[in-house]
């Protein structure tokens, strides 16, 4: 029997759920690192410009596709255009692949949460603690399963009672915790005379020293890759959440709010992490990102803070736990909703089956650190285990492919107007601002002005600029350029 389609009860509920997806590990462990590496304020500036143009375009497009078709990712693209159903297939494959390993990392976060909350932060800062933990046989699997079950319970409860209600509590709480830690971080007196404020300067002041054209290219590509991952597009999430967005709610306003929330948390994560890491570990500390930053370097930073470090660490990992949980929820929702829409299964059945499959794949990936250990070379010179391979194919290869195909579908096949009409059907506008170029013709002593509205910008973005940027990003992931 077909269940009635869910919807978010309010636009704020939708915004917080979508922001819950967008704000994830990427905001915390990658954004600050890239900002420090890519010239501080320079990176921030490029990121914000891209968010307002490229990010905006992708978000409006995906949410509109969802709302217009009232279908989740797997079936939405086919409904939009008969021959394009395969895009939905890959868009659903991405969260299906990411969920198991995202929950493994969620399990690691949970382990550290418990360690810090029970006063064991000192032990967690030990040299081999992290490696010892992830290469163990039982513990990582147990934590992964607990994390996955927590996700499943929320999905089981549904869009409204589960995802929306939880996001309304966790997201504001997360924001308060990030702000609190960020303020604390600025007051730090570190080792060798370094302070939190010194770190803040590295983060905020644009550093163009010794930067040539190729470095600027790297900054743009880094910012673009980060933004792309951060706003949770190209993995069916925004399409699926968009399908629960009510017809008479303001879509444009919601897109702006999601972007502001996501960028604000990423920015605050930088204020939280860079000053603290710089104060205690210096420039060496700033070279670290990903799991190494979160599970090795930061515990050492917390330890250096003395007695208070355990409390700060506990608050930090609780905050990360919220961020990871709401992102994992959005991943599972895509797969479950797709199963419901495609096969008419009940939410219960779809949730149970997806949970069992994810546990099976998750266990396999966990064993990639012991029983099935191997080192596989990846483009860019690094090597990786099973988890890295899942990550590489899903986020570096499939995601750009989904995004490029979406741009071509909307830009050239169904045409941007279809999306613009959907996004503005309640009389919303694309916003008053746009790009204004003005120049003076000295010979004729005449001033010229060219105004490009945000609507025109959207069309140019979706048709030409975004696919080109994404293609370059894909070539970068394949190791063909850079
Ligand atoms: N947007 C998330 C982040 O910044 C990434 C993500 C979300 C990944 C949802 C998977 C699923 O970390």
Description:
The protein is built from 20 helices and four strands. The termini are far apart. It has one domain: Hydantoin permease (Orthogonal Bundle), CATH 1.10.4160. It is 73% helix and 4% strand. With 482 residues, the protein is mainly alpha-helical.
Secondary-structure map with pairings?
Elements: H1 11-22, H2 25-29, H3 31-37, H4 41-69, H5 73-80, H6 85-117, H7 121-124, H8 129-134, H9 139-157, H10 159-186, H11 196-204, H12 213-230, H13 237-242, H14 251-286, H15 290-304, H16 307-343, H17 347-367, E1 376-377, E2 383-384, H18 386-413, H19 416-423, E3 434-441, E4 446-453, H20 454-477
Antiparallel strand pairs: 1-2, 3-4
Helix pairs in contact: 1-10, 1-14, 1-16, 3-14, 4-12, 4-14, 4-19, 4-20, 5-6, 6-9, 6-16, 6-17, 6-18, 9-10, 9-16, 9-17, 10-14, 10-16, 11-14, 14-15, 15-16, 16-17, 18-20
CATH architecture grouping:
Orthogonal Bundle
**Main beta-sheet annotation:** 2 strands, antiparallel
Domains counted in the coordinates: how many? 1
Helix fraction, binned, reads over 70%
CATH fold node name: Hydantoin permease
The parts where pLDDT drops under 50 for at least 5 residues are none
Structural class comes to mainly alpha
Bound molecules: phenylalanine
Rg estimate, integer Å: 22 Å
Distance between the termini: 53 Å
Mean of all residue-level pLDDT scores? 94
> Can you identify the CATH superfamily?
Hydantoin permease
CATH domain class: Mainly Alpha
Describe, in short, the structure shown.
With 482 residues, the chain is mostly helical.
Using brief descriptors, characterize the structure shown.
482 residues; mainly alpha; Hydantoin permease; two-stranded antiparallel sheet; binds phenylalanine
């Amino acid at each position: 029997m077909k269940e009635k389609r869910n919807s978010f009860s309010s636009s704020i509920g939708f915004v917080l759920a979508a922001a819950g997806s967008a704000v994830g590990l990427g905001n915390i462990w990658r954004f600050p690192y890239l900002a420090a590496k890519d010239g501080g304020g320079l990176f921030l500036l490029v990121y914000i410009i891209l968010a307002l143009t490229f990010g905006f375009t992708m978000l409006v497009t995906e949410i509109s596709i969802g709302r217009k078709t009232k279908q989740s990712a797997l079936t939405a693209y086919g409904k939009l255009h008969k021959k394009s159903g395969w895009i939905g297939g890959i868009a659903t494959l991405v969260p299906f692949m990411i969920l198991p390993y995202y929950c493994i990392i969620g399990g690691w976060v949970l382990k550290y949460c418990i360690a810090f909350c029970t006063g064991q932060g000192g032990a967690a800062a030990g040299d081999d603690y992290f490696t010892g933990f992830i290469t163990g046989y039982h513990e990582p699997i147990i934590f992964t399963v607990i994390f996955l079950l927590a996700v499943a319970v929320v999905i089981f409860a549904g869009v409204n009672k589960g995802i929306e209600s939880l996001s309304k509590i966790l997201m504001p709480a997360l924001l308060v915790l990030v702000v609190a830690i960020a303020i604390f971080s600025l007051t730090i007196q570190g080792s060798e005379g370094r302070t939190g404020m010194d770190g803040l300067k590295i983060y905020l002041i644009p550093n163009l020293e010794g930067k040539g054209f190729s470095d600027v290219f790297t900054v743009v590509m880094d910012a673009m890759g980060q933004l792309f991952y951060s706003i949770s597009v190209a993995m069916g999430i925004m399409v699926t959440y968009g399908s629960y967005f009510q017809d008479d709610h303001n879509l444009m306003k919601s897109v702006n709010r999601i972007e502001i929330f996501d960028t604000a948390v990423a920015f605050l994560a930088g204020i939280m992490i860079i000053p603290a890491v710089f104060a205690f570990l210096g420039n060496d500390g700033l070279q670290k990102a990903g799991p190494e930053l979160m599970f090795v370097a930061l515990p050492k930073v917390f330890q250096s803070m003395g007695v208070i470090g355990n409390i700060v660490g506990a608050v930090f990992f609780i905050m990360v736990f919220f961020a990871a949980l709401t992102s994992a929820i959005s991943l599972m929702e895509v797969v479950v909703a797709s199963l419901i829409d495609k096969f008419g299964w009940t939410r219960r059945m779809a949730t149970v089956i997806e949970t069992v499959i994810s546990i099976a794949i998750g266990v396999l990936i966990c064993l990639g650190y012991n029983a099935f250990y191997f080192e596989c070379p990846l483009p860019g010179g690094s090597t990786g285990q099973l988890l890295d391979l899942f990550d590489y194919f899903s986020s570096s290869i499939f995601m750009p492919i989904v995004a490029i195909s979406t741009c071509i579908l909307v830009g050239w096949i169904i045409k941007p107007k279809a999306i613009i009409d959907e996004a503005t059907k309640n009389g919303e506008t694309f916003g008053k601002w746009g790009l204004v170029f003005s120049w003076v013709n000295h010979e004729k002593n005449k001033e010229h002005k060219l105004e490009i509205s945000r609507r025109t910008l959207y069309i140019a973005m979706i048709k030409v600029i975004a696919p080109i940027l994404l293609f370059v990003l894909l070539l970068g992931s394949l190791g063909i350029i850079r």
